[in-house]
Write a structure and sequence with these properties.
Elements lengths: L22 E2 H12 L9 H9 L10 E2 L1 H13 L5 H14 L2 H16 L11 H27 L1
Antiparallel strand pairs: 1-2
């Protein structure tokens, strides 16, 4: 039987747990892949990250090192592409980047994603359309992952 998504598990690192200093590609890949592996999502590759840069999901690394903002972008894109097309994700990423509120937007995504996986309600923002979109996207992917888990358990 497969391990359940639990209410005590945190699948996404908090902002504070992310590296404060820029990391190299291999460190980025290790961090992102270790984070998404328990979610049974496909591993991220160097080619994918380079493609994300070309598609302007985030800026080019400086000195081959990736900042916390870029790590978050790779992590969130890797999760969202489960249910959303890259053009839709790109539009959202650009909105978040232009808002210059990457940290609080990531925390909104993380909270909604984690709460949904734990079966806890998410209070959707009624005053901030971008926050609401972030929360709904996080819930969509988390609900998809829960559905796949439940269907797999039926087969086992």
């Amino acid at each position: 039987m497969m391990e359940e998504f639990g209410s005590t598990s945190n699948y996404l690192l908090s902002w504070e747990e992310l590296p404060a200093v820029p990391v190299y590609m291999e460190q980025l890949l290790q961090l992102v892949n270790e984070t998404i592996q328990p979610l049974e999502l496909p591993a991220v590759t160097k080619t994918m990250i380079n493609s994300y840069v070309k598609q302007h999901f985030f800026s080019r690394p400086v000195g081959h090192r990736y900042t916390r903002n870029q790590i978050v972008a790779v992590l969130v894109v890797s999760i969202l592409k489960t249910d959303f097309s890259l053009p839709v994700i790109s539009k959202a990423i650009l909105q978040i980047r232009d808002s210059r509120q990457i940290e609080p937007r990531y925390q909104q995504f993380r909270q909604a994603f984690e709460s949904t996986l734990a079966g806890q309600p998410v209070v959707l923002s009624t005053v901030d359309p971008l926050a609401r979109a972030i929360q709904l996207a996080a819930q969509t992917v988390a609900a998809h992952l829960l559905t796949i888990r439940a269907l797999n358990e039926l087969v086992d």
